[in-house]
Amino acid sequence: MSAQIVRCVRIVSILSGGRKLTTQEIIGLVSDADVPPVTRRQIQRDLRSITEAGVPVTLERSGREQRWFIPTSYRGLQPLAVTSQEILSLHLLKGALGAYRNTRVHKDVERLEKSLEKVVPGNVFLRQDVVSEVSPGRYTSAIDDAVMDRIVFAITDPHWDRVTYRSIHGGQTKTFVVSFCRMINHAGRLYVAAWHPTHKQYITLAVDRIDHVERAEDVTLPHHVFDERKYKRARFGVYDGDVHSIRLRIDASAADFFASREWHPSQRVTRRARGSMDLTLEAPLSPELVSWIVSWADVITIVSPSKLKTICRNKVSRLLSM
Questions:
Q1: pTM of the complete model
Q2: Is 176 helix (H, G, I), strand (E, B) or coil?
Q3: 145-226 — its CATH code?
């Protein structure tokens, strides 16, 4: 859960008991040693969000002192009522929580799972993703608690951070400034999308390879506004690279299947005679694209570019030569 959601829940819980508190008193009650310090501005924004959500947080002034409270007459905080249409959504949520085991939010996830279990008991989905177990394998590297805290905090309260990142080859590290944008659960691993102001492009970092995060107080650039479509168009999977015009011919036997799915935001479909189909993409020749094409080699023909043909041919030839 985001740091702001946790704070808002705590604030509502505290004020719903009839207490009248100053902003500073609220800061003291919601602050947690495990998360970055809470500021007065954040609390004021939280109170505004709670009010906009329909909870009547009221400000009482007495001289110079200002105290916040929820009127005792308010009866909006009723027990959660779940409709039959919402049950499936809650089961979907339970199924997605497994991605966050062995991370900083593991304890929070466990508490949330227990709460959901009371509302929608039982398991509808496998406890683990079959694909992450069989295809890419499970990543076993632990995620540092402090790193996870600061990433979540940076996404919910945008600012610039200085990151120390460890290379997968040789354990070498490098430090650079980024703006964290979104967390990504991909193939059994947690990644974070970030904007690199020096390179002026989005990058994707494996969270378990981030050694240290600290707020870059010396960076005065305007806050970055995340553009999800721009991020996704520049990669296939989590890997980015130079974008190429890709044209794939899909056999008639698989045309309907491929047409019914979005493989990339840039895709275009052209039906051909005798039922085959052309699928065109503007995407990088990433390792995931190559693996995806090779896995569908019985129904896909690469029309262009020739570089992609060569990469796929070499991949298959090396496997057969072994």
A1: 0.58
A2: strand
A3: 2.30.30
